[in-house]
């Protein structure tokens, strides 16, 4: 374990909080740790009865390209129930609601510089409705065959980590049903 010696707030924004800590390492040397605090998030793999996945395509400014992803979003407040967040984000981004959710686990997205955790859910028994994305979200809903999406994850067409993990977890979950 590393022992905290000093902590400084570098930046506090709407989404991210950046800190810089001085720590004492196990070997007795001092080091600096810069990291991002994140409120946490959810991601949902919405699967239709015919094994097609409801996905979203949106422009991601940091990487300057459109990405095909599973629906996802951050918690609105500290301590928000992940399942409730998943239900909200699925409806907002795709218009779909699910009668059945299965928790597939959580991931640390980038533990080298962030504490972000994403909880992943499988959503089944979908009912189509009207989407209501946030005003700063321009989202295109796409319905894709699970085998096609799996191939895109393998060949590098899909590069979003939460999507890759969610698709693989879903694939293996469905194989074990």
From TrEMBL:
One of its GO terms (molecular function) is hydrolase activity. Residues 36-166 form the Nudix hydrolase domain. InterPro entries: NUDIX_hydrolase-like_dom_sf (IPR015797), NUDIX_hydrolase_dom (IPR000086). Its cofactor is Mg(2+). GO terms for biological process: nucleoside phosphate metabolic process; ribose phosphate metabolic process. Keywords: Hydrolase. GO terms for cellular component: cytosol. Pfam families: NUDIX (PF00293). This is NUDIX hydrolase. It comes from Thermosipho melanesiensis (strain DSM 12029 / CIP 104789 / BI429). The lineage of its organism: Bacteria, Thermotogati, Thermotogota, Thermotogae, Thermotogales.
């Amino acid at each position: 374990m590393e022992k905290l010696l000093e902590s400084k707030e570098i930046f506090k924004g709407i989404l991210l909080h950046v800190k810089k800590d001085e720590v004492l390492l196990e070997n007795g040397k001092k080091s600096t740790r810069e990291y991002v605090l994140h409120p946490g998030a959810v991601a949902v793999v919405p699967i239709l009865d015919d094994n097609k996945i409801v996905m979203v395509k949106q422009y991601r400014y940091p990487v300057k390209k459109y990405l095909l992803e599973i629906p996802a979003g951050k918690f609105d407040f500290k301590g928000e129930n992940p399942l409730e967040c998943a239900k909200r984000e699925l409806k907002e981004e795709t218009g779909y609601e699910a009668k059945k959710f299965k928790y597939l686990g959580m991931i640390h997205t980038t533990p080298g510089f962030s504490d972000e955790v994403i909880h992943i859910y499988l959503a089944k028994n979908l009912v189509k409705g009207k989407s209501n994305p946030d005003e700063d979200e321009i989202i295109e809903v796409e319905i894709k065959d699970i085998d096609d999406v799996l191939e895109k994850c393998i060949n590098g067409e899909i590069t979003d980590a939460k999507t890759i993990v969610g698709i693989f977890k879903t694939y293996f979950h469905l194989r074990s049903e």
